[in-house]
Fold these 2 entries.
Entry 1:
Amino acid sequence: IAPGGVWNMEWFAFVDQPAEELAKYKKKGSLGEGIKTYALFGALVGLALAIGLLVGIGFLPQSGPFAGFGIASVVILPILFALISVVVSLIATGLTWIAAKIFGGDATFGNHYYLTSRMVWPIFGVGALLQALSLVMGVVILPFTIIWTIYSVVINTEVVKAAHGLTTFRAYLSWVVPILVLTVILFIVFAGLLFASGFVPPINSGI
């Protein structure tokens, strides 16, 4: 899948030198290759969840919509999660791409999406490793999880920076601003629904 694809161990280099690695792929790849990567990622997550439900892994719920699929979950969940992964990634990347263009970026959506997809496996791989270690080592691994979370911010910024040729600050704003805007919108919608449902009584200005 693409130059230096999913099964190429070179993607580990994205973790310790993201700027240099992303520069190699700036003009390579396409929207289709990015979609393949996200679809495969979602399918593997769905398959892992299906297997976990079937064998009864302790921390996974043994009831609910996913558990009801039975053996068919090994087919249904990978397809479902592949679709979810692609749709969510297209929307999230689209919002970041629009913001980056507003801040002066010059990348096409396809190139931006492809570069974003290059970071799925490194980020997921390290994150999954830390989660597995936390099950064994408990809070001892927490500082490393915090460090990785902060470093993920650096990686996301480098993706936008490499794709659009923006400064670090503008690249950072390009993916942070959409998150802030969506958060405010969701808060307003949620608050409006609460007031409309009568769950939260309106403020009486006469009191």
Entry 2:
Amino acid sequence: LRAVGRTTDARQAFKQATRSAPDMPEAWGHLAITSIELGDAASAVKAAQRCVKLAPSALPSQMVCAEAWSAAGDPSAALSAYEKAWALDSQCYEAAFGAAASASAIGAFEKAKEWLMRAQPGMGDTLPWLLSVIDVELNARDPEAALSRVNALDEGLVGEPQIVLRHAQAMMALGRFAEAVVSYQRVLADAPLDADVRLQLAVAQVQ
């Protein structure tokens, strides 16, 4: 049902499965996932907690719990679950990447960097990984490191709008406003209706 977009029907089926087999962690895990997909984070957390209680040493249980807590807006709880998942499998790079995002959300930027380094072997220098590293450096008020990373990218990635946006943000943090304006304008050439980027450009132009 999920595969054909019938997520609501799928959740009802998983609810029935938890009634028929309340000790089956997989049913609770799937119920949590479909609840996340439907935007029902509270139900997702309840189902994920039941899943973990039934199978605390199972990697899928800890991962679905982490995702449920992330959906519920509790990065501290999500980080704890991602750390438990990583302890179960130190090659679960998805857990490391999730832990990095959660650590960054609570302002633990050094810890976020550590988790991103653990995630790199599984992700490589992909755009999501690079953006996360640059964002952590910007949030940690280290624009020089962020700018250095952007400048070291190959030509194909340097032109990516999201990379150009980070370049502009690094320039703003360094007080190089004219260069920031140029980069913001490049981003808007690809996304002219992006109100947030327009606001950032306006701020740069009045500096």
